[in-house]
Amino acid sequence: MNDELNPQEEPILENQNKDYGADNIQALEGLEAVRMRPGMYIGSTDTKGLHHLVWEVIDNSIDEHLAGYCSHITLTVHPNNSISVQDNGRGIPVGMHQKLQKSALEVVMTVLHAGGKFDKQTYAVSGGLHGVGVSCVNALSIDLRVEVEREGKVFAQEYSCGIPKWDVKEIGLSNKNGTKVTFLPDPTIFSELVYSYEILSKRVRELAYLNKGLHLTITDEREIDETGNPKSEIFHSQGGIVEFVSYLDQLAGRQPLNPEPVYVTAEQDNVIVEVAFQYNDSYRENLRSYVNNINTIEGGTHVTGFRRAIGLELKKYGETSGIFTKNKTTVSAEDFREGLTAVVSVKVPNPEFKGQTKGELGNQEVSTIVSNCVRKVIEAYLEENPNMAKMMVEKVVLAARARSAAQKAREMVQRKTVLSGVGLPGKLADCSSKDASASEIFLVEGDSAGGTAKQGRNREFQAILPLRGKILNVEKAMEHKIYENEEIKNMFTALGVRIEEREGERTLNIDNLRYHKVVIMCDADIDGSHITTLILTFFFRFMRPLAENGYIYIAAPPLYQVKKGKRMAYCWTDEQRLAIIADFGGESGGLSVQRYKGLGEMNAEQLWETTMNPETRTLRQVTIQDAELADEIFSMLMGDEVPPRRKFIEDNAKYARVDA
Ligand code: 0RA
Questions:
Q1: Index of the ligand 1 atom closest to the CA of residue 181
Q2: pTM for this one?
Q3: 148 beta partners
């Protein structure tokens, strides 16, 4: 596959250095294509593409582990945002490549798709966006250095934009084996150059769970602690995905109902199936799925097979045990998913990826294989653990009841929405424009700030919806409670969006969205941040398409007003305040500094000019960089478990800013 990425024709290049052979030209041609259209190879050139470079390099080391030759991998972020990935695998071969008459190392590093092992027959990552090869990373790096320990020696080569600076050379002796790649992404290619520790460590942790026994270390040299050491974490799991499932629940503070996860491992027709799952006291499904270690965010046939297996077996048990009849329950497929945390990991020799982001497994045969393997294990588990069986089936009964309650509650809310215009919430001060693309709605903390905002706004295109205090924490509430909540009902009706249900799948219909800017405006204090987080959690869980389309914003009210004589300025940070004070001639009798604790301390005019006027305000747009990471963080922030939340706040307090 991917042949179209590898130009086969003899390239026609004029004015080339005569010393270059045809193969050299072809190699350069390939890498030039990567630089011309990087998106085709790594998806994008934003922060996602930037991180993709790391996945690409780590995948090669993981393949060495899967082949049985590598036990340790270290990932280092250097102070200049260059990255090193080092492994103790066999080391990239350095011998002469017969056909191309140069070091195999140079071939792997400079020829598209040569990176794959020549001896690779197993479950190499060969689909989706992974697996385009380390040469792509080389092409997109302004500087790259590779070091190989092999055959008692150390070899090295350096490149710039994929072009070797010098031939592979011996630089020393070593009795070890391994490969180290250090690269600096090309700033002319990437729009974002700063690596996110959160994103990197999430993937490294995940890889540790998916590859039990493998030791992975991540070190961030940009962060030095009090003892002078860089931030560093070691990930290693003996229990693999069983531990992964426990970790996911623990992180979010969900209480497991099974004493330990149910675990399935099997192989059929060259497909390796590994599944772990348990039920917990929450109301949502939390499922991670992987194919050859690649996260399939859109699921696919392996996930379908797993869901079918759990549904069929629990249904069978619920029917034969009489539990369903006793409770007069009619179950639907989604009732088996409530409160379920699962990891589904398969290894497939020739995976086909489809879907919008190529994040969905397409191989039909995998569905039956997974379903068969999982059914056998669940059937035996239910037989051997009657208490667990009863608990799980009763959980399904409760889910079925909650579903019909939620459906009724949802219909109640939505009945009003249909009559658009009529039935808008009484608290909404709507704008006069009916053009959604030009209209804004401010969700304002509290009635008093809401009142000020109503006076201060431009009523032509700005609507105000005051929200009462802390809105419901949707992370912990049952679904019907959510639709019965006054503030949430108001948001649905004011925004004009509806939840539609088709074949058990719910989607948000935003065709009649009434505003293309939904601005959360809360006090600039701890309570205000909490309320912002609660509202974002609600949007993330129930109105995600709004965030995906870039319609959600956070307002940034100022923290200070500094006055001296006729001069006045607003400040959003302490640094700004100090700079303004200095600019105004320093601290002296005529200077006044007002600290705004809440929106309510500003009058309508001040609120307009600092926070609402499109000419002068700062809005932060909410994007979903990594929905799964966001999911994890929301569960953790809104869950019951305090230590991970404290750690997150301590680690991230420094990133909090209002001037983004
Ligand atoms: C080609 C062949 C062999 C190993 C590798 C490539 C290899 C590539 C990378 C990239 C990062 N770490 C790596 N480690 C190994 C097999 C070599 C042999 O047969 O000895």
A1: 11
A2: 0.82
A3: 155, 179
The rounded Å distance from CA 178 to ligand 1 centre is 9
In this chain, the answer to whether the domains covering 241-409 and 414-558+601-655 adopt an identical fold is: no
Instruction: Report the amino acid identity of residue 211.
Output: N
User: Rounded to the nearest whole angstrom, what is the distance from the C-alpha of residue 105 to the centroid of ligand 1?
Assistant: 9
CATH classification number, 414-558+601-655, choose in 3.40.800.20, 3.30.200.20, 3.40.50.670, 3.40.50.300: 3.40.50.670
pLDDT tens, 580-639?
A: 999 999 888 889 999 988 898 999 999 999 999 999 999 999 988 767 777 888 888 877
**Catalytic residue list contains 523:** yes
Q: Do the beta carbons of residue 542 and residue 552 sit within 8 Å?
A: no
What are the residue ranges spanned by the domains of the chain? Answer: 32-235, 241-409, 414-558+601-655, 560-595
Q: What is the DSSP string of 147-160?
A: EEEETTEEEEEEEE
Residue 445 among the catalytic residues:
yes
The residue whose C-alpha atom lies closest to atom 14 belonging to ligand 1 is 91
The residue annotated as part of the active site, out of 527, 548, 609, 631, is 527
CA dihedral 324, 326, 327, 332 (to 10 degrees): 20
As for ligand 1, residues whose beta carbon falls within 6 Å of it are 60-61, 64, 87, 89-90, 92-93, 108, 117-119, 134, 179
Reduced to 3 states (helix: H, G, I; strand: E, B; else coil), residue 269 is coil
Residue, of 263 and 329, whose pLDDT is higher: 263
Task: Report how far ligand 1's centroid is from the alpha carbon of 121 (Å).
Answer: 13
Q: Whose CA is nearest to atom 8 of ligand 1?
A: 92
d(CA 274, CA 359): 19
Does residue 285 contact residue 309 with C-beta atoms inside 8 Å? no
What is the rounded distance in angstroms from the CA atom of residue 448 to the CA atom of residue 456? 13
Residue 370 corresponds to which tokens in the numbers above?
């997974």
| Parallel/antiparallel/unpaired status of strands 102-103 and 96-97 | antiparallel
Of ligand 1's listed atoms, the one at least distance from the Cα of 150 is 20
- Separation of CA 90 and ligand 1 centre (Å): 6
What residue owns the CA closest to ligand 1's atom 4? 92
Q: Which helix (H) or strand (E) holds 628?
A: helix 627-638
Where does the pLDDT of residue 646 fall: very low under 50, low under 70, confident under 90, or very high at 90 and above? confident
Q: What is the pLDDT of residues 458-480, one digit of tens each?
A: 999 999 999 986 788 888 888 89
Q: How confident is the model at residue 527 (pLDDT cuts 50, 70, 90)?
A: confident
With 90 as the cut, is the pLDDT of residue 164 above it?
yes
The stretch 219-230 carries a mean pLDDT of 96
Residue 127 pLDDT > 80: no
Nearest to 216 by CA among 453, 58, 23: 58
The Cα 127–Cα 119 span in angstroms is: 18
- How far does residue 399's CA lie from ligand 1's centre (Å)? 50
- Looking at domain 32-235, which CATH architecture does it have? 2-Layer Sandwich (3.30)
Give the architecture-level CATH label for domain 241-409: 2-Layer Sandwich (3.30)
